[in-house]
Structure formats: structure tokens, C-alpha cells
Amino acid sequence: MPATPIKQVTGKGVFVPGDDIDTDRIIPARFMKCITFDGLGDYLFYDVRKTESGEDKKHNLNDPRFAEASILVSGNNFGCGSSREHAPQSILRAGYQAVIAGSFAEIFFGNSTNLGVVCVIASDTDRGIIAKAIEMNPELELTIDVEDHKIWYGDQSVPCEIKPGARNSLLSGNYDPLDELLVGAGDVAKTAGALSYMQA
Amino acid sequence: MGKSLFEKVWDAHAVRQLANGQTQLLIGTHLIHEVTSPQAFGMLRDRDLKVQYPHRTFATVDHIVPTNETVEPYSDPLAQGMIEELRKNCADNKVTFFDTNTGHQGIVHVVGPEQGITQPGTTIACGDSHTATHGAFGAVAFGIGTSQVRDVLATQTIALNELKVRRIDVNGTLAPGVYAKDVVLHIIRQLGTQGGTGFAYEYGGTTFDNFTMEERMTVCNMSIEGGARVGYVNPDEKTYEYLKGRPYSPKGGAWDAAVERWKFFASDPDCTYDDVVEIDAALIQPTVTWGITPGQGVGIEENIPTVEDAPTQSERDSVAEALEYMQFEGGSPMKGKKIDIAFIGSCTNGRLSDFQEVAKYIKGHKVAAGVQAIVVPGSQVVAKIAEELGLDQIFIEAGFEWRAAGCSMCLAMNPDKLIGDQLCASSSNRNFKGRQGSPTGRTMLMSPLMVAAAAVTGEVSDAREVFGFAPVGV
After folding, report:
1. Domain residue ranges of chain A, discontinuous segments joined by +
2. CA of A20, closest CA in chain B: separation in Å?
3. Would residue B280 count as lying in a domain?
4. Which residue of B13, B158, B439 is in closest CB contact with A191?
5. Which CATH number does the domain housing residue B316 bear?
6. CA atoms of A90 and A175, how far apart (whole Å)
7. How far apart (Å, rounded) are the C-alpha atoms in residues B163 and B231?
8. pLDDT by residue (tens digit) across A83-115?
9. Which of A60, A138, A139, A150 is nearest to A100 (CA)?
10. Looking at the predicted structure, is the pLDDT value of residue A2 above 90?
């Protein structure tokens, strides 16, 4: 069964500045000593938000003005490093539905799309405009229009990019591929049958 | 027109096209570990699905295992819970598990090759971004997320977009004291941490022809640090020689047939690449990272860059952020930074040849006062052979701690971690903020011999000077 199609994401935004925000930063490894993803939302960007003694640092992610945000706005090469799905899982479980960045690391992008976390690319200039607009008015609603490749902020918009495969998956609600992969079982057996190393 | 290895392997494993345009790709070999698989088994249970091809999944435990206690229960109950969960999932689903009592446990990217599970012309996936390591054998190996681990368990396939292929030719002879680690740090410095996004990296040229299999693994291992999910070297006689006689390698008559098949997969001489990069091996220096991404490296003789030198505002911001975190001054020499910890190990540089090379030079040297130096073999097999050769005693006599196998301080999910803002000379693969377990801990990536040089002098040093190599360069 396909999930509900994701054509748009609407919500308030929060700006997390910096390029090369890696998945260790999104969810430090010490919080991965677990056998389910439950509760990971509490540790999203933990060391970005907290001092070593556990107090809040001055950061947008701790600022009550952005407490209701559901869209992250960040820099280039977002999600680089580890393949840990704990990263998009923690983003989702902390209440975020989308990330706007200059570019995404490939494994992170795929992991996020599979979960229905929308990842779109916008230029440095356009992200700067959005970050500034959010800072001026934290209540501002952003809408990522997956179908039209646009990010609306108030009544203005900037263009954004999303990979065609991911876009199709989100729009059709088939972003979790498991059901479709299961349907191919007969073809899988044929492909496997032709490969000597696959034989038991 | 000829095809690249990537294209041939892709074609042989492509099952069908999916509605969104992606390919359903057969994953011949699936490797799992305790951190990214338990949730996937849970998802299978939730949907009442079973492991479709259990004989093609192999498990080991590496990230959370302590390296200084081998008796269970471990002092960390969370670690104990994770190993028990993996044990149960493997037993319930008839998956082979290289458990700690088998003598074959170790880092997943060390175990696969040494068992002969990693083979040319195959597809491999693992819930770990350093899976490209297996590309050293001419496999196409993907790091995947946990939902994809679920997909492989349930269907032996994943949904993927085909990658472009960039050929990276490194030609010439490396100077003494320059290693595979320096080659890959140099490549990432040149092409950037996201230069490889959307590409498979095919490494070749005379430098790679001359590399051992373990050196090829070191380079392929860090492909993802340059943004490339896949990295590989075409298989050759060295590849077959390495695999011959390994526990899971084909035997008897099947061996010759397998070698013929493997030869077929090597890139054709007339294939075309989406991009080609050429690098002169003679220009590569022992390289050390000064910042918080693996691309922020310099040659040992160079100074750390300044904010002002960076050409764009976003790069200036990145340099400033890295210098502040690392507590380094822009323009200061890389040499001479005082270290607290030295770590030799990881899936990048935790193989037998890494320890043999260092052991050749450290006799008669002592770890400097105030420095803790730990050596962590990549697997129980590596540890056993190293101990038979007496390498452990050489390290211990020089003041290093010789530990049990695991990922250890590469990502510090076990008790081996930096404290506060300790500065670590590390043979691992990532220098991200907080990577080695302390939110303010600092990591400098370098070759194992450069780590040893830093350990014995107490500061970042040129291993060629410390260990009396013949004068090099000018």
C-alpha cells in the first residue's frame, strides 16, 4: 500500500548554519547504542545544542522563537559521513519533515527520502533569503512545493531542485520501496539464478 | 564500445526498473553488524517477513565491542544488549555470525575480505558507509541505511539510481614514507568532500597496480569521505592471489571458473568514463588533517591555511569554524602540534600490513610522556597473526597498548574515547566534531606510521625524520 503522497510540506523554519554538517553532528554515535529508533528525536543535534555539562548553548535550535519549526534550512553537503539512518530518523522524530540545503550527501538523501523526509536543494543566495526571512519573522510559514519546484515564504517564492526519482516517489506516495521490491521476487530469483556465487 | 566494471556489475545484478525510474538491484552479499541491523530485523518482524536469502547475509560485531575486556557481560549494559540482540537475530534467521568466540570476529570491512566473502564482480551492501572498502576487490559495494538493510533482508535487493563513473588515475612511485592513506587524503583534498556525489570512483594507474590488496582497501575505504558512495579497483592477479584458499573463496574446479568470471568484470580498455582525474604520485606528501572534514588536510611540511586564503565566503566560514574547533592558528605549521592520544586501527588502517609497517620502525622508540597510544587490530584473525609474529610485543615494548579487535576509537561507541578537548593523532577515517566520543575532542587523520611518529615525539612530526628515512625531496 502506498503511503499518502507528499506534494507539499508546510511549516515554520529554523536555520542551522554551516556546510558539511555530518551525520555524527546530527546524531552523535554515543546515542546509537539502541536497538530501536524510538526516542532518537531527543538527541538530534545534541552536541550542537548542549554544552558538555548538558546546558543549552546559544543556538537557533534552542531559541523558543523557532520551537515550532518543522523545516530545517542549512548549508552544503548536508548529511555527509556515516550511513546511519539514525540521522534522518532523529530529524523525523524531533518533528521535522523537510530539509532545505545547498546539497546533500547521497546516502543521507536516500535514507531521508525512504522515510518521507523531503530534501530539496536551493542556491546559497536563496537559502540566505529564506534564512533572513525566518530570522525577521519566526512565525513565517514556508511551503515546499515538491510538484512545482518552489519554496514559498509568505507570498514570495524561490526555486528549488529535487532529484526526479525522489520527486516521483514522494508525489506517488511510494517513497518506501519495500512493497514494490517484494513484488519483484520472481525476477529477483531469476537474476540470482544466473549468478554462480548466489547459489547456496 | 567497452564497459566499465561498474556498468558490467550493475547490468548483471539489475532485476528490473521501478515505477520511479530507479533500478531494483540484486545485492549478492549482505554484511551486517550490531548498530544498524536490529531495527531492520524489528521491521521484518512487524511485517511478518522473513530473511529471503539467509545464506547471503553475514554478521559480525564491531562498533560496540570493548577492546580491553573480553568477558561478558560487558560493563556497558547497552553494549551487552546490542550483542545479544544480534546473536538472537542471526540465530532466529539462520544468518552466519562471526561472534566473539569464533576467532573470526572483527570490523565488518576487515572480516569480509579476510574470509574470502568479498569477491570481484559482485554487489555488496552493508549498513555502514565504509562499505566501499570491498571495492578493492572489484566488487560494487554500497553503504546503506537501515530501511535498506531491511529491504536486503526481505528481498535481497535495494532501489537505487545508477551512478556515473569517475576514473581516478594515480601514476608513478610514492616516495618512501608516503602511504595509501596519504593517497586518499590527497585525493579528497583535491576533489573535495562532496566531489564524488553521484559517482562511483574507479581507482587505477600504476600506483594502484603496484599497491597490495590492503593498500587498495585503505583507499577504497575512504571513498565516501570524498562523497563517493562506491569506490573500486579493477581485479587483477593480486586480487585472485589474495582470495585463493580463503574460507569462503571458491574451491577446486569452481576456483578456475570463478577467476574467469572475475576477469570478465574488469573495465574494458575502450570503455568511457563520465570523468577522468589524473594525479602524479610523486607530488603526494605525508598528509595530515588540520580541520573537521577529511578534505581539510595539508602535507606535513605545509602550514595550516588561513581564513583569508580561502577563495569564497562559505569556505572562509568553514576554515574559521574548523580553526576555532581545533584550537589551531591559521598559518601555523602542521608540525609540532602536541598530541594527547595516538590511535592505530579502524577499517581504514587496522590490517596486518599496517601493524607490520609500523613495527618495522618503532623498535628502540618509546611513546612520549603524557601520550596514551593504543593499537587496535581490525579483527581477531589480524590480532592472532600479529601476535604470532611478535608484533604485539614490539608495540608493548615501545609503550603502546595492544588491544582486542573492534572499531574502537574511530567512532568511540565502546569505552575507547577522547576526554574533553584531547587532541588525537588517528589512523581512522573521520575527523568530524565529536567523532571520537568527546563533544570537544579533536582528531587529526594520518597514516599509521605518522601516528606512531606523533606518539613517540608527543607532537605531529614527519615520520621520515623521526624514524631516520633517507633524506627525501629538497
Report:
1. 8-174
2. 8
3. no
4. B13
5. 3.30.499.10
6. 18
7. 11
8. 999 999 999 999 999 999 999 999 999 999 999
9. A150
10. no
Nearest to B192 by CA among B225, B232, B229: B225
**Per the CB < 8 Å rule, is B12 touching A194?**
yes
Chain A residues within an 8 Å CB radius of B20? 165-166, 168-169, 172, 174
B80 sits in the region (left: phi over 0; alpha: psi -120 to 50; else beta) called: alpha
Alpha carbon of A58: minimum distance to chain B alpha carbons (Å): 16
Residue B176, min C-alpha distance to chain A (Å): 31
**Do B151 and B295 lie in a common domain?**
no
Closest residue in A to B84 (Cα–Cα): A35
Full domain range(s) for residue B197: 5-275
Shared domain for B217 and B342, answered yes or no, is no
Cell 546516502 found at:
A107
* Least CB–CB distance from B413: residue in A18, A29, A165: A29
Residues 6+ apart with CB under 8 A from B264: B8, B121
Q: Which among B81, B151, B156 has the least Cβ separation from residue A35?
A: B81
- Domain final residue pick, B242, B275, B308: B275
Is A168 an interface residue toward B (CB < 8 Å)? yes
Q: Residue with C-alpha cell 576526554?
A: B419
CB-CB under 8 Å, B129 with A187: no
Residues 379-408 of B with CB under 8 A from A: none
Interface predicted TM-score (ipTM): 0.97
Strand-pair partners of A22: A80
Place domain A8-174 in its CATH homologous superfamily: Aconitase, domain 4 (3.20.19.10)
pLDDT tens digits for range B409-463:
999 999 999 999 999 999 999 999 999 999 999 999 999 999 999 999 999 999 9
Indicate the residue of B20, B47, B254 with minimum beta-carbon distance to A169: B20
B16 at interface of A, judged by CB pairs closer than 8 A: yes
Residue B418 is predicted with a pLDDT of: 98
- Which residues contact residue A72 at a Cβ distance below 8 angstroms, ignoring those fewer than 6 apart? A13, A14, A16, A91, A96, A98, A99, A100
For residue B266, give the C-alpha cell.
574488469
* Chain A CA closest to residue B57: A198
Tell me whether residue B471 is in a domain.
Answer: no
Predicted confidence (pLDDT) per residue in B108-149, tens digit: 999 999 999 999 999 999 999 999 999 999 999 999 999 999
Residues of chain B with pLDDT under 50: 472-474
Distances (CA, A) of B63 to B168, B293, B427: 31, 21, 16
* Number of C-beta neighbours around residue A179 at 10 A: 12
Tell whether B269 lies on the interface with A, counting CB pairs under 8 A: no
